Amino acid sequence: MSLDGAFLHCTVREMLDKKLIGARVDKIHQPSRDEIIITMRTFGGAEKILLSAESSSARVCLTSAAPENPQQPPMFCMLMRKALGGGRLTGISQDGLERIINFDFECTNEIGDLCENRIAAEIMGKYSNIILLTKKDGVWRVIDSIKRVTDDISSVRRILPNIVYELPPREDRLNLTDCDLSVLGERLASFGEQRIAKALMSVFEGISPIFARECAYRAARDTEARVCDLNEDRLEKLIFFLRKSAGYIESYDGCTMVCEKSGKPKDFCFVPVEQYGAEMTETHYDSPSVLIDRFFGERASADRVKQRSGDLLKTIMTIYERVARKLEVQKQELADCAEKEKYRHMGDILSANLYRAEKGMTELKAEDYLNGGEITIKLDVRLTPSQNAQKLYSEYKKLDTAEKMLTKFISQNEKELAYIDSVFDAASRVGSGPGSEAAIYEIKQELISSGYIRSAKTERAAKAPKALPPLKFRSSDGFEILVGRNNLQNDKLTLKTALPEDMWLHTQNIPGSHVIIRAEGKDIPDSTIVEAAQLAATCSKGRNGTKIPVDYTLARYVKKPNGAKPGMVIFVNNKTILVDPSEELCEKLKQ
Question: 286, 393, 425, 490: which could join 511 in a potential S-S bond, CB 3.0 to 4.6 Å?
Fold first, then answer.
């Protein structure tokens, strides 16, 4: 990974230069499952330290980002607030160039005594972790960690509460910042045919592939050069560059991000990068933290939203499956009610043959006047013939009542499934851009108001994110088009925002957004209706299909039935158009 021990050393140097030692913990937030942000109060203002144990974007750096935090802080966040709240940062350390950064704090425990606590941020790819430690009897013990490691996960090293903290196994490798480079030739000699870049990663600790390849390029002008290709001149060039790189680590003034020509970040390093030539563009950063923030920030933001929207989608699917199971049972019970006429028919025949039946009989054979032939009617020996007839009529009435009620319940549950499907569609369309947290919050509030989930006390007390406006587009003919983001917004858009002469659109029998074309006193051309229909198809469950039917009518013809779920409406005087969804059109018309 690009964030090696050497680059982490640069971020540590930057934190020390920012005079964070002596700063006090002001706030602690956990915006996502594997991220912690600690706001430190210094004499020069506030500084935020970002710790991430996310496998794809693990990092430690200063940050200026202000990600949206969950309504209810996770348990590990609350534990860190209890252990570190108001504490003073006394040290930031790194063992050589290992990818472990320690933050030491002087804190006050529950009874008011001073204690030493530590955060160990281990940046090791999928094994990354953030561990909260306390010092007892001269030994660091684990309070808890953002990822607990049991024997089932690792047989080498456990991370569990109350056990003694042990460092990960460490190999015997050189530290670039304080080693004797004159022995490098001897160290590399045993690697023979191996590539220089791979050999250097085996010799030095805390260096990334991009830096190792840069070393090979600076020495031999070839990133694929082998150790056996290192003559005396190339070895001297290699040692010279390594000594210069050690200076870059201490001064962190060579931090460079490499981007593709499209602008997409490709890699980064703590030294200027020349190996890509004109194929890539380079951007120099004075701050290693700013570089890391920009490299990982967008991906981390997307991951946070993905995690939260994934949890919401899982909740909605659970609700959907519960209603679907109930509906299946009701349909089976309704099928069983089909036999109701049989009981009434047998009751009629038994009533017509009461003179032939006696108490104690187990069955009665009589002529089936409806179907012809003979019918056998089972009797309860404990009942009189008249009581047996009444029992058959009671069974008929019970099934008849059940049929009527089940038909009603099935209709309600089918509508409920359609509604839940529309909520799932809205949640699945939440992106990772600005306002995504508010969009997830609104959908969750819709489920709470509909009674599907309950709101926690902390969520009720928390400040709600600012409500999002509907999506806005401008048609090629200059007409404003509004698109709802969720069912609650669909209701507001259709029933309150839209004027009677505005055009209303929605995909036919497919969950999706309500779309409004603002007429503004003008006749709406067909080309605008087609574009709005394409937007409706794109913002629906049918966005991956073709020839999606979209209904459209004037807003005055759209009504909401009493007691209907959010987003559910009825309409008349509509026409239907078939269109293909188009993400490109959405981007083109978006305001």
Answer: 425
Whole-model pTM over 0.85: no
| For residue 75, pLDDT beyond 90 | yes
> Can you give the residue ranges of every domain in the chain?
5-145, 181-286, 304-468, 471-589
DSSP-assigned letters across all residues of 94-143:
ESTT-SEEEEEEEEE-TTS-EEEEEEEEE--GGG-EEEEEEEETTEEEEE
Token pair 């609700």 in the structure block, residue: 319
Question: For domain 304-468, is the CATH number 1.10.287?
Answer: yes
Q: 181-286: which CATH number, 3.30.70, 1.10.357, 1.10.3470, 1.10.8? A: 1.10.8
User: Pseudo-torsion of CA 355, 359, 360, 362, nearest 10°?
Assistant: 50
The CA radius of gyration of the chain, in Å to the nearest whole number, is: 35
Domains 181-286 and 304-468 share a fold: no
> Any idea which residue has 């089940």 for tokens?
406
Distance between CA 372 and CA 360 in Å, rounded? Answer: 27
Q: How many Å apart are CA 67 and CA 300, to the nearest integer?
A: 10
How many C-beta atoms surround the C-beta of residue 134 within 10 A? Answer: 19
**DSSP strand E in 285-411: where?**
363-367, 374-378
Instruction: Give, as one character, the DSSP assignment of residue 33.
Output: T
Compute, in degrees rounded to 10, the torsion defined by CA atoms 482, 484, 489, 495: 50
> How far is 312 from 446, CA to CA, in rounded Å?
12
The helix (H) or strand (E) run that includes residue 16 is helix 5-17
What does the alpha-carbon distance between residue 236 and residue 230 come to, in Å, rounded to a whole number? 9
Look up residue 332 and give its DSSP letter. Answer: H
pLDDT for the residue numbered 461: 46
Average pLDDT over every residue of 72-101: 94
Burial 181-214 (b: 16+ CB within 10 A, else e): eeebeebbeebeeebbbbbbbebbbbbbbbbbbb
Give domain 5-145's CATH architecture.
Roll (2.30)
How many Å apart are CA 5 and CA 518, to the nearest integer? 57
Token pair recorded at residue 340:
């109701």
Widest pairwise Cα distance in the chain:
122
- The pLDDT mean for the chain works out to 89
Please give the full DSSP string across 473-498, using - where no structure is assigned.
Answer: EE-TTS-EEEE-SSHHHHHHIIIIIS
Phi, psi of 210 (to 5 degrees): -65, -40
| Mean pLDDT (whole number) for 90-97 | 94
Tell me the two tokens of residue 151. Answer: 């024997």
Which tokens hold the place of 375? 């019918």
Q: How many other CB atoms are found less than 10 A from the CB of residue 372?
A: 8
Q: What is the pLDDT of residues 273-294, one digit of tens each?
A: 999 988 899 999 999 999 998 8
Q: What distance in Å separates the CA atoms of residue 287 and residue 7, rounded to the nearest whole number?
A: 11
Contact 24, 106 (CB under 8 A): no
